[in-house]
Amino acid sequence: MSAKTSYFNKLARYYLWYTGCFGLFLVMVALLEQEGMPRLWIGHLFMFATILLYAIIGVICRTSNVTEYYVAGRRVPAMFNGMATAADWISAASFISLAGGLYLQGFDGLAYIMGWTGGYCLVALLIAPYLRRFAQYTIPDFLAARYGGGADGRGAAVRAVAVGATIVVSFTYVVAQIYAVGLIASRFTGVDFSVGIFLGLASILVCSFLGGMRAITWTQVAQYIILLVAFLIPTIWLSAKHADNPVPQLAYGSLLPKLAAREHQLERDPREEQVRAEFHRRAQEYSARLEALPASWEAGKVEAQRRLVEARTRNASLNEVRQAERELNTYPNSPDEARAVWIELRDANLARARPPVPHATPFPGATKEESDRQRNNFLAVVFCLMFGTAAMPHILMRAYTTPSVNDTRNGVFWTLFFILLVYLTIPALAVLAKYDIYTSLVGSDFSTLPTWISYWANVDKANPLISVIDINGDGVVQLAEIAIDADVLVLATPEIGGLPYVISGLVAAGGLAAALSTADGLLLAISNALSHDVYYKIVDPGASTQKRVTISKLLLLAVAFIAAYAASQKPADILSLVGAAFSLAGSTLFPVLVLGVFWKRANHTGAIAGMAAGFAVCLYYMFRASPTLGGSVDAAWLGVMPMAAGVFGVPAGLLTIVVVSLMTPAPSRSSEGMVDYIRTPE
User: Fold this and answer.
1) What pTM did the predictor assign?
2) What is the pLDDT of residues 514-562, one digit of tens each?
3) CA–CA separation, 400 and 408 (whole Å)
4) pLDDT tens, position by position, 564-606
5) Angle of CA points 92, 142, 609, to nearest 5°
6) What angle do CA 486, 487, 489 make, to 5 degrees?
7) How buried is 554 (Cβ within 10 angstroms: 0-12 exposed, 13-18 middle, 19+ buried)?
8) Residue 412, exposed/middle/buried by CB under 10 A (0-12, 13-18, 19+)?
9) Peptide bond between residue 129 and the one before it cis (omega within 30 degrees of 0)
10) C-alpha to C-alpha distance for 78 and 409, rounded to whole angstroms
11) pLDDT higher than 80, residue 610
12) What is the C-alpha to C-alpha distance for residues 158 and 406, in angstroms, rounded to an integer?
């Protein structure tokens, strides 16, 4: 038996034992729940047991060896690399938000699944095998060697620009993961959201800080097993409950006609129309305020002050006084701020005034123009996610960890396989949860609302993740009275379906595993870029291996705390942050990576100009079209949403590299020779 086979068999035995022990742990907690263990204890048990597990793996795999720390010793078998990459890939956006996005958007939400899955085909065909053939440590490493340039011909300028792109992309993405960690921790342990973020951060740091890629790889394999089990069990349960078939990927199709009939019924329900009319009236009220600015802002502030004085004068209840104080404190500070806030509130009310979106209808719209805009955005999102996937630094780094180019190709196959086990289940979960809410919650009495609604409403009181308010005062829940955040649906699914609370704890552990695994990879990508590409390659080329690893660990610690602080400010929802990261990655890094492999004429100057142009166009469009960043939806080009800005950035980067490279001297022979080398079969 070869050493390679023996190593694979040893790993397989370890993880089979691990899976068996995890199954026994689930059975034990289920029995404790039946014996009366409090829910809060179950939440704590799942959270801290899994974090302790990851910490133990991190401690066991600690290392100061450069090759082990950066690329796990280049000895990870293809199948296990596929599992680790899948865990790295199935982030909080995939595990927590994607089913919620499908719930809210219907067919349009499939753009995320198609884009992310298609992106892995690009990784396998265009980039990963060539990076492994190059056999260094980071993406800036490859770009600096391929494009060269500079006084010493070592490509310092290309490396610096690539490092900047890696940091911006990875930081944007990691903020979304840490936000998800805070969301889960605050719900299932009862701590404040900000405290939950830093609790999760401790687990991230134990793995990545001590052992780098080596510890992260073996932790991610363990995390993939947890997140797969956590996603499949509640979905199988709901499938058996609603479709009498425990295979959700096959069963949910039988529910789609029933769901469509229920949607049609709710669209024509007089009480639903009454609630939607009220939201339309509120939207018109905000429109009137916007037209009357700045006078409307001044009048509103005077009115808020008057209500507070009146409440205090007549000795109103403490709750009423606090409500008046809150309204005054949160009132916009200026007419410009009022404009931004009121536009957002107007649009939110207009959205809730619309009938339910048909789940299975492609590109729904009231007019052909609106439908065309939906289709264009669908294709733009698919485009951005595909090219962003093929350029995401923390994913491409995993191409360096396998023993050979052939193992890298096989690893991408296994990655796709393990991703699809979850991705083929996500549409099923969205339909099953939607059917449950539309048939069980809608039409019920407010006096009998399930307790999970109040649980999730109290996680973030300033911006509730779920809200059910009796708008028309009839005491009955209408669909239009339910506002649910995409980030909460999967975590609340066990409670929505009436499953035992142990399954809720399991789903929380799965969501935590998804967020932590991706955050580990992203933080390592940032710290390695700074320590290896900036400190070692540019600042101090004579640094010892021990010093390089120490610098990487310290930088990782600093970046982690900055990212945690950014996440605590709740900059945007998870899917929006992730979409921005992918657009930036595709615009900045994809053109320079692909042309670096397949076009010998691409040179140093073209690479720098292409990265700068792609990044600038993408960022400019985000600021132009995103209300959150001070732009306006009306300024969007062709109606494309801001998160799909890469649809303009990628072509800009490609075109710039081609034009500038042709206008400047050809690259050196060594650069052309490197292209021949990486494209030569192993």
Assistant:
1) 0.85
2) 888 888 888 888 888 888 888 888 788 877 777 877 888 788 778 888 8
3) 8
4) 887 777 666 666 777 788 899 999 999 999 999 999 899 999 9
5) 90
6) 70
7) middle
8) buried
9) no
10) 8
11) yes
12) 29
Strands 466-468 and 482-484: antiparallel
3-state class of 679 per DSSP?
A: coil
Name the H helices within 364-481: 368-389, 393-396, 405-423, 426-436, 451-457
Distance CA 85, CA 301 (A): 53
Furthest-apart CA pair in the chain: how many Å? 87
Phi, psi of 404, deg, nearest 5: -155, 170
Tokens of residue 549, six digits: 């690893």
Residue with tokens 């409500």: 323
Write out pLDDT tens, residues 411-447. Answer: 888 998 999 899 989 999 999 988 888 888 888 888 8
Distance CA 298, CA 312 (A): 22
Average confidence (pLDDT) over 320-330: 79
- In sequence order, what DSSP letters do the residues of 308-360 get, joined into one string? HHHHHHTT--HHHHHHHHHHHHTS-SSHHHHHHHHHHHHHHHHHHTSPPPPTT
Among the listed residues 655, 547, 518, the one whose alpha carbon sits nearest the alpha carbon of residue 203? 518
Place of tokens 């390695």: 528
Q: Which two tokens stand for residue 34?
A: 């039946």
* Neighbour tally for 29: CB within 10 Å: 21
Residues 6+ apart with CB under 8 A from 172: 577, 580, 581, 584
